Amino acid sequence: MTITLDNALGWRDVAAVARGSALALSPAAWTRIANANTLVAAIVERGIRAYGVNTGVGALSDTVVDRPQQRRLSRNLLMSHACGVGEPLGAEAVRAIIAAEINNFAHGRSGVRTEVVATLAGLLEHGIVPEVPARGSVGYLTHAAHIGLVLIGEGRAVVGGDTVAGGDALAAAGLAPLVLEAKEGLSLVNGTPCSTGLACLALARTERLLLVADAVAALSLEALGAQMAAFEADVLAARVSPGLKESGEVIRTLLTGSRIIQAAQGARTQDALSLRAVPHVHGAARDTFENACTVVDRELQSVTDNPILSGTPEAPVVSSEAHAVAPALAHAMDSLAIAVAQVAAMAERRLDRLVNPLVSRLPPFLAADAGSCSGYMIAQYTAAALVGENRRLAAPASLDGGITSALQEDFLAHPTAAATKIQTIIDNCERILGIELLAAVDAGDLRGDAADCAPGTAALRAQVRAVAAPYRDDRPMADHLARGFDLVRGGLSIARPSTGQPPIASGASS
Hints:
Elements: E1 2-5, H1 11-18, E2 22-25, H2 27-46, H3 70-81, E3 85-88, H4 91-105, H5 114-125, E4 129-130, E5 133-135, H6 141-151, E6 156-159, E7 162-165, H7 166-172, H8 184-189, H9 193-223, H10 233-236, H11 242-255, H12 259-264, H13 273-276, H14 278-301, E8 308-311, E9 316-319, H15 327-355, H16 357-360, H17 377-393, H18 415-447, H19 455-465, H20 477-491
Parallel strand pairs: 1-2
Antiparallel strand pairs: 3-5, 4-6, 6-7, 8-9
Helix pairs in contact: 1-4, 1-9, 3-6, 4-5, 4-9, 9-11, 9-14, 9-15, 9-18, 11-14, 14-15, 15-17, 15-18, 17-18, 18-20
């Protein structure tokens, strides 16, 4: 599939490119890029002072850089700003950042040449993944600089699974290293493409995660004989929340026709909150997700370079501003991180009820022979540990603060940190849901009434049993849990009854 960039990409477009779709630019987009570059040429020719064009950057913004040194400035910015540390980002994350960067330039306010954008697009087309260390950025500079290094034949890139020098990666694809002109070095490290690209991936993963969370909860509700009166449509309608309504509909659809649920009605006045409040927690997360989608799409529709260009070649206008600061994006990712962490915390509570014989009325820890077998006893510990890690990670990155560049950049919104840490929270939530998924299916087997399951949950159980046998302390638990994680992340196909959209059957992300 080819995604065509005309006015602006949406978050789904960026996620699709990250996962392998091709990216093309419309003629109008190419024209905007070229027109903006004529403004840079006019600024350079006339000596109009412009940040990062003929001045230094950051605290050096009042230091004039004469014309012979402007190419050197662009190159040096990549060299000095490429100071990331730690393990590299995965291929999808890097591709998402590149797609968002191309989107930013296509607004036609940055001034880079079309050759720069074409070479970035060439990285995507030829499967060249710049090696981008994941850590060491308080904003947006570091990750983008490592991508920029490859454009000029420096740095390293992964091609076909092998790590090679940036110049060799370009040569193998028939691409020439760029010699950067004025402002291009600054534009390549500036703006919010890094945090925006990562946020697009977080949204794609969260969308699937929330549907899977509803499905896994339905399996647990059935295994525990939940009281479904709390999930009736007219009851849930009393609380206004589109997300709550959708979660309730998914759960009701999956449990329709369950003789287990029917037999349990009236057994208790009401269930514990980890069962009864599933639509409320999952629904709140869905509502937070929808708000985050709006924020990320606005970010993609926005120009986030500094400075931005306008006017004509005869009267160019250079505007220094703060569009590269993205507090709204940081807030959205922080909020979504909290929402996903809460979904994970509730899943662990349902898991605990599945393994606790005092409330499940099932064998302790779902063990085949309690005593000689421990079943899911320690798997619940694992889930609890991941909940604790999520709690620590969910502290808002947007409040981290920090002072950089000799007081010139004395406020930091940390959108990249927010968009990075949510990836780990999502990963942890997927693992917790994977444990609950396996435990819920095993619990259903131990009930001995699998034939009475709802058609919806029976279909889910069949998918699980196709790859994971019941756990009987007969193999390392870690291997068993890995199968649950794979199912949650991408292997479980689930219908989306309230949207009419096709099932989500894949959601892997690196």
